[in-house]
Specification:
By secondary structure, this protein is mainly alpha-helical. The chain has 2 domains: 2-61; 67-124, Molybdopterin biosynthesis moea protein, domain 2. The chain contains 4 helices and 4 strands. It has helices at residues 2-10, 14-61, 102-110, 125-131; strands spanning 67-71, 85-86, 92-94, 115-119.
Amino acid sequence: MVALASLLENGFDFYSVFVDSAAAMLIVGSLGYGIGIVYERVVEAPLVESYREEARTRALAGSEPLAMDLPVSELKPGMRVCEQVKSSDGAILVRKRGVLTSSLISRLHEKGIESVQVEAQRVSSTTEETSSPT
């Protein structure tokens, strides 16, 4: 628009058209950049923070345990099972939210169970500090 107005006013002067167009692009670009910053601060940042807060709340509340499938060979005593484990004939080997022991793990091997869904273990800050290389 600015370039068209400049053409009508000054005739066809390439330099003035270029300068006016460049000025218009700078103005529009600056406005776009400013709108982007406002959007980030007003919309995006609070939304991301609300997602983080919800994740923190869920993690601390422990209402929904995180589940992961592990092969029976990787199970350790003390792990908690998410769902009950049944043998091929329907017998319950481990109840829902049951804690695994060495004998239960051996029995799972004997019954031919391949994998079990267990609760993901939360890493404490003391464990992280001791396991990090110095």
